[in-house]
Amino acid sequence: SSVYTSGSFRGSPLIAAVVAPALTVPKKLSQDPKESVLVAGKFDGQKWIYPGNPTHKKQILYSTYPGPMSTQLMTYYDNSSGLLWWTPDTDANPKTFIFEGPNVHPQYYKKGPVMAIAHQFECLGSMGYQPQGACHQPYPTVLQQYRGDWYTAADIYKEWLLKNTSWTRKKLYERDCSPIITQPFALFQDSTTWWYKEKFAPTKLLERVSNWSRIAGGIPAATTFFGWEQHGTWVAYDYFPPTGGQNFQRGAELIRKAGHAVFAFISGTRYTVRTLPGYKGRQGDFSAAWDKVRDSIATFWWDGQPNIQNVSWGLENAWLNMASPATVDLMSAYYKNASLYNISMVQLDQNVAFEMWPSWRNYSGYSSVYWKNAQRFLQTARDYGKTQDPWFSTTMERPNELVAQILDMPHTRLYTLDTVPLFAYLFHEYQAGYSGWTDPQKGLASYKEPLLNALARGACYGQHIGIRVSRFRSPLAARWVPQYKQFLKFQRGMGNSFVVFGKMLPAPLNLNHNNSNWFEIGSYLSQSRVATGGSCGTLMISLEPSSVTFSTARWTKDCHISQPKCTVLGPGSCSVNTTQTTQVHVQIPPKQFVWIGW
After folding, report:
1. How far is residue 343's CA from residue 262's CA, in Å, rounded to a whole number?
2. Between 127 and which of 146, 309, 365, 378 could a Cys-Cys bridge form, CB atoms 3.0 to 4.6 Å apart?
3. What confidence tens digit (pLDDT) does each residue in 307-355 have?
4. What 3-state DSSP class applies to 442?
5. Residue pLDDT, tens place only, 411-436
6. Cα 328–330–332 angle (5° rounding)?
7. Distance CA 247, CA 205 (A)
8. What's the CA gap between 243 and 365, in Å, rounded?
9. Euclidean distance between CA atoms 540 and 526, whole angstroms
10. How many whole angstroms separate alpha carbon 263 and alpha carbon 393?
11. In the beta sheet, which residues pair with residue 125?
12. In what order do the strands lie in the sheet containing 536-542?
C-alpha cells in the first residue's frame, strides 16, 4: 500500500489518496501473451490485450469512479481463469482503478505490473473535504479468483448489484420510457449551418428531419442539430433562445407533431467564460456574467482559484460544482427551457459519464454529495420534461451505473475496437443505450467495410444506432444503408423484445470454424438475449466476402430449448440444423444480419 500526497491543508500535507492494496501481477498469464487480457468498467467496458507488456511506458488504466469508470470492477484473465478486483460500494465514494506497467514508476514497482485501487475518502481531506481525526474505509475491497473470462467476472458483480443496489430496481419494460426508446427512433446527428442560408424557416427543419426518416425506411427520426445553442456550438452560457429563436421553437413543434423528435446536447457542468481565437464560430466574452455567479457555482482549487480550463476547440470553460444548490438550479433551468422549446430529448454531454471535479472551497468535494445532487437533478429534470411532453427523454455521454434507473439511455461507443459490452451486459434489460455516431474504425481485415463493421458492432451489442448524416453522402453508403434499414425494422418489430428489452447472455459463441483468426478480426459479431418470455436469440453478421459455415454448442442455460430457426434480415438465405442434442451447424450469407431464434 502507499499514500499519495497532493497540495496542503493549512500548511500540512494533504492526503490525496490511500492506495491499498497494491498487487504485483505477472506480465503475462499464459504462454501466448495475447491471451492475457485486462477488462475494466471504464466507459462501456474497455479491453487491453497483453497489458503487462514490458515496453509500455504509460499507465494502462488510471480512471476514477464515479466518472470514466462506470462500474466498480477490473479483471485480469487468460483463457482459463482470472483475477477480479471490485468494490461493493453503494454510496458513490470516489476511487481510482489502476493498472500500471513496470516502466511507469520503476522506483516503486520493480517486479512487474501493478493492479491497485486508490481510495479518496472524504475523511482524509482528499478531493476537497476537511480532514477528520479518524478515518475508516467506508466499503470493502474484494479480490478474488474465478474460472472463466470477463463475463464470469461480470456475473459475480451483477449478483451483488441485484441484491444490494437500486440501480436495477425496474426492468426497462417496467419503466416509463418514451417511444423514442421502446420503439426505437432512427437517431441522427445534423448541424444548423445550412439553416442560416434558409433564413431560419421552421418548415425547413421539418423537411430536414423528414428526409432522414425517409432514408431510414420511414421510421420516425430523432435528430440532434449541432450549433443549436444561442452563442454557438458547445458554448455553455445562456443557451436559450436557441439559434433561430422562436423559429427553432416553431420548427421543433412541427417536427413533434409529425411524429419525429428534436434531440439537443448541452455541455454538461461547464460554463463558458469566453471564446478563444481558435474557436470556429461567433466570438463572445461572458466573463462579466461569470464574475457575478462564480462564487456560488464554481469549483475551486486548494489555492483558491476557480477551475477554468481551455478546451481544444477554442473555449475557456469553468467546471461547475454539483454540490452547490445554485449549480443544480442553473442546470435544471437548462432542461426546463429545453422542454418548453419542444426539444424532446436532452443529452448531458462533455462530462464523460458525469465526470466531475473536486472543489476545495467550503469542502464541497468530489463525493456522494455531488452524486446525490446529480441524481436528484437528473430525476427532477426528467420528471418536469415529461409534464410538458410524454416523449421527453434524457441521455448522457457514456454510461454510469448510478443513474441507470434515471437516465433513459446513455450515449455509448460500442463500435470502437477496444471496447467490450460490459456495461450493456450488466444493465441491458434495465436501460437502453445508443451507439453514436457509428464512426468507422481502422485496424480490421474488414476495413473495406468500415461503416458496416461499426454498424454491426453497435447493433449486435444491443444498442440503438446513431448516424452522422454526412455518412449518407458517402459513395460507400450503398454498402451499409440497406443493412441499417433492415436492423431498424427488426429492432422495432420481431426483434424488439430481444434487442431492446432482453437480457444479454455471454458471447461470443464457442465457434468451430476453419479459419482460426476469423473472429479475432471482427468478421463475426453476436450477442444472445433472453426475451421477456424466456426464449433466446442471437443477432449475427459476417463481413467475409462469401458465406460462412460454423458449428457451436447448443444453449441450455436461461433458454427454453426448441428447434432453432434462422432468418436473414436482408437478401440471401441461411440454414441451421442440430446434430443429436449438443451441436448446432449454421450457414450464413455474407454481409447480412442474421437472426437465429431459439
Report:
1. 5
2. 365
3. 999 998 999 999 998 888 899 999 999 999 999 999 999 999 988 888 8
4. coil
5. 999 888 789 999 999 999 999 999 99
6. 65
7. 9
8. 36
9. 5
10. 9
11. none
12. 503-505, 524-530, 536-542, 593-597, 565-568
